[in-house]
Amino acid sequence: MQYLMVAAGGALGSLARFMIGRKISERFTTGFPVGTFFINITGAVLLGIVSSAGLGVSNYSLLGDGFLGAYTTFSTFMYEGFSLFQDNEKLNALVYIIGSLILGIIGFMIGVEISGMIKII
Questions:
Q1: What one-character DSSP code corresponds to residue 65?
Q2: For labelling alongside 3, which of 27, 62, 86, 104 has CA 20 to 30 A away?
Q3: Four-residue CA torsion sign, 106, 107, 110, 115
Q4: What does the pLDDT read at residue 13?
Q5: Please, what are the averages of pLDDT over each run of 10 residues along the chain (121 residues)?
Q6: Distance between CA 64 and CA 58 in Å, rounded?
Q7: Burial category of 97 from C-beta neighbours within 10 Å (exposed 0-12, middle 13-18, buried 19 and up)
């Protein structure tokens, strides 16, 4: 059953990433990968919430491993960061890579705090 939960969450997460990334790319015509940046930061916040919420194995398999595992994308992050360097967009590359790491960590910590506030309410 756990495999089905991961698979279902993964299908939904990849569709969400595709649709959100496409919408963002249509609105922002820049060399900076805004779509992947947004998706990975929001994914970090959501993972902070999900991992701290005490959801149980099945729900975490669906949301954490499945949905958020497919929603966020390390491979695209690496590809786009490296491509910026190759295109001599060194400042954008550094902002993207370092910003993603720092904001991802901060986002995760914010998610943990949000989860704690939800438990109190």
A1: I
A2: 104
A3: negative
A4: 97
A5: 95 97 90 93 95 89 95 92 95 96 97 87 55
A6: 10
A7: middle
Task: Decide if 69 contacts 14 (C-beta within 8 A).
Answer: no
Q: Based on the number of CB atoms within 10 Å of its own CB, is 7 exposed (0-12), middle (13-18) or buried (19 or more)?
A: middle
Q: What is the pLDDT of residue 121?
A: 55
- What the block records as the tokens of 14 is 């990849």
Given a contact cutoff of 8 angstroms between Cβ atoms, the answer to whether 82 and 94 are in contact is no
Q: What is the dihedral of CA 50, 104, 14, 29, to 10 degrees?
A: 140
Q: Are 21 and 36 in contact (CB under 8 A)?
A: yes
Task: Determine the Cα–Cα distance for residues 36 and 32; give it in Å rounded to an integer.
Answer: 9
Apex 45 CA angle, 86 and 89, nearest 5: 15
